[in-house]
Hints:
Number of helices: 10
Helix content: 25-40%
Number of domains: 1
Structural class: alpha+beta
Amino acid sequence: MSQIEIMKDSKIVEVMVAQAKHERVDSQIAENAANVINDLAKNPNPHNRYQIAQLIGFAVNEITRPQTNWLENVADVKRVGFGDRAQFNVRLEGIRAYIQAKGATTARSKIANKGMTLDTLAVSARPVINTVELKNGQVQMADLIRDAAFQMELAEYGRIQTVLNAAATTWAAPYYGSGTGIVKATFDPMIRHWARMGAGAAPIILGDINMVSQLAELTGFSTASPSAWADEIMMEQNRAGYIGNYLGAKVINLINPYVDETDTPALDTDKLYVLPGGLDASLRPLKVVFEGDVDSIEENNIDDKTFEVRLDQYFNAAMVLGVRPYLSVYEA
């Protein structure tokens, strides 16, 4: 039998990704993929072990893309190749105009930006597989791939949240505010502030269902007096559990998955993020970089007869401020 070569775009990678996502896969296609893995496992020479590690790495790489809408809304995210460095540009104070006598010399000003690069760290997972179980086809490869990808993603979220929260608590109003529950007198000025800067687009409020579900109460909404509210509002509240707009801002429910085997959400449940609508992502102060794809290497352990795969993703996050944060954070 000719050597099996698994590439990033191989059909078996697509099948493993689909199974890891619990998507429907034709039974014959799934069986063919399992047979390929079994053929590799039954002859664990260096080439075949490398191909199994590549399969895991390629599949994990495909599903370690944010399973939440958090990053796409609050961060400036760049993806670069291995060894490359992401260049982030931060807008500083720009051109100014002055009133003066005709012919007088005016002060100079220029468009100002500062550039910065961000060194990366490694987030790693090291799944261990019993070689006998692997040879016998007892290893659920899709489960391994899904678990590894999700755990790596959780570690990334933890790092990014730590960076954001540490910076936000040092900001003054209207960029940071806190209170018991959602304090209208503190939260509303944040929205009005960004409503002036959205180039005609409505501000965005992003938060966990625990937070966005409380916004209706701030409007005076009550199911006890339904006649005072439009049917559309009543239906929206009942259908989604939150209102879609508040003070002219678009409300987005944060997709917040549970950490495996627990009832703990992966992301903060006590935050509301407010951003100007139509904002270019490059103006966001939270900078996140992913360097290269998920890298995989493998090794057999002769002591306990296990097959180990190490998975690494290079990434990092930093807070970089220019004129202003271009983000408000409310913490309950």
